[in-house]
Amino acid sequence: MKSNSGARVVAKVEPTLAHRISTKLYSKPKLRLQLLLSAPVTWLGLVYIAALLALLVTAFFTVDSFTGNLTPGFSLENFASLFTNSLYSTVTFRTIGIALAVTVVDVLLALPIAFYMAKVASPRARGVLVISILMPLWASYLVKAYAWRSLLSNVGIFAWLLRPIGLDTPGYSLLGAGITLGYLWLPYVILPIYASLEKVPSNLLEASSDLGAKTWPTLRRIVFPLILPGIVAGSIFSFSLTLGDYITINIVGGANQMLGNLVYSNVGVANNLPMAAAIALVPVLIMFGYLSAVRRTGALDNL
Question: Domains of the chain, with CATH numbers?
Fold first, then answer.
């Protein structure tokens, strides 16, 4: 606009509320991060932490033996049963053993696969391998478990291949359940290790070779410390998922049980929710112990 004297006058535009807020947030990155995380953290607190607290509280309740009704209160009866009943201790150690075995086997299988994908395979072959690893994740969990039930049966492909050489199928057993669980969680172990290996500069391996280091010392002293966070991330997936699984052991485990089966039977069969809650706290405590032990090694610092 122009004044009467002909001089140009620029009108002052007041900043809008959205502009003032964006300017404020731009100057305070910590506040931006807090606001960004507020919704998922609130949801996590309401759904996960509140559910864990409710689980803890329910574990101290009892069930009236006559009416079967839930009786609120404070009782250590359920926890006493966990420590005195040999069934619970046996199943707990069995579950931990299977989870550790599945995790170790998956890590040993994932390391060479991930290394080949990240450092050896051509870009095209790498893409094919990544798709091949991701494809099983698109299939239903139950479909994969029942497929392994077919493979492990007495008339399955394992029996057909192994019997001519004097061996037999693992069948529906702990070994069969371990094989199935290892297959189910293997992609979750490969992908974090592969992502860690991709970040390892190839010139480090070349420099180690130029300085005269052989393959094993290079892997042990250079590659392994750099990919340890990826190994830990994969092991957390495999270990925690195996601890809480109860469907696979029902499908291919025969008459064996894991902690998840005891929780399911106490909820669906015995209608003893407090005992189920007490049993369900066991894998939670095991995972807290596992994460605490891993945290002391410093492997979680770079996750």
Answer: 17-58 (no CATH), 86-271+280-302 (1.10.3720.10)
